[in-house]
Amino acid sequence: xxxxxxxxxxxxxxxxxxxxxxxxxxxxxxxxxxxxxxxxxxxxxxxxxxxxxxxxxxxxxxxxxxxxxxxxxxxxxxxxxxxxxxxxxxxxxxxxxxxxxxxxxxxxxxxxxxxxxxxxxxxxxxxxxxxxxxxxxxxxxxxxxxxxxxxxxxxxxxxxxxxxxxxxxxxxxxxxxxxxxxxxxxxxxxxxxxxxxxxxxxxxxxxxxxxxxxxxxxxxxxxxxxxxxxxxxxxxxxxxxxxxxxxxxxxxxxxxxxxxxxxxxxxxxxxxxxxxxxxxxxxxxxxxxxxxxxxxxxxxxxxxxxxxxxxxxxxxxxxxxxxxxx
Amino acid sequence: xxxxxxxxxxxxxxxxxxxxxxxxxxxxxxxxxxxxxxxxxxxxxxxxxxxxxxxxxxxxxxxxxxxxxxxxxxxxxxxxxxxxxxxxx
Lengths: 326, 89
What we know:
- The complex is a heterodimer of chains A (326) and B (89).
- Chain A contains eleven helices and eight strands.
- Chain A is an alpha/beta fold and 326 residues long.
- An eight-stranded mixed β-sheet of chain A has the order 3-4-2-5-1-6-7-8, with helices on both faces.
- Chain A starts with a helix and ends with a helix.
- Helices cover 72% and strands 0% of the residues of chain B.
């Protein structure tokens, strides 16, 4: 099956993700797929969940932290500025405390906590994770293309969702028990109904946000997850491992795309020994890829003569990925 | 709320006495348990405040505003020394 057929046969899959090790071409394929879909007349948003995003580079346009920016008709790109998001979030919390208790200044102890929390290493990922909910729930686009983080992070991102979920379940239960005790006391003392538990409400909201974000990643109907590999031994092994882990988290794997394939025709020309060896090696690993992933290999993308930046180059990649006449 | 508040009658007095005899202790117990749970809750969500990071802080920040008043009593309780009289309380 070709990549084009996969898209045509599954029009419900509106969330498209490319995963793989760093530097293999996830951003390139995200951009090219977004380009192709936009040319087909769909409204597309490609956004990065990577704190070190590179969409700005590939589109040759500074979009960092600027919301969804129109690249061409139907094609929008967004890079989340996690730092900015965290700062705004901290300020929201401060404002809420000021409003709730009529305070002029935040107590030192509380302020310290707010600042310390923001310095946690998981904070950036969590902030991006949370922002994705706002992006996706908006529902303004036909397709959402996630330019994912490298594998390790992506797995962290996925496991975080399930850990968060369990955590929230536990404390929600605790909170509910607390409400019961409060009610018992209220009944005994024949006082009015206990005050509605605002924390419980907040917990429900948190749970909703986490579930929205993580359920998309594991939705077989609506999500397509593609792995990017290159014909090199280590990459093949790592990808196999990662695919196993992703399957454990119920991520719907839709296929593999082989990138950086040196054109075979070169072998017919007069080329140096060095390149000839590379070609022979590549052959071995291409066979291995076909053996390992079989029917799920959807496309082979050649190594281009220059790097992929700017729309004309993205268009060329899209043509190879989906066939001409887009 | 146009009605004037009713003067407590004889039956109300009886109810109060009965509550004092039977219900008060139970209500006190329920409230005390709830208080302990409140502190447990803050420990799980705001553990970082004591230097015990328990889980990612992004969402615990969302809960912070609601527990601001309890934080100082909670910290005192968590960090104070215990002795035999605690068992009697």
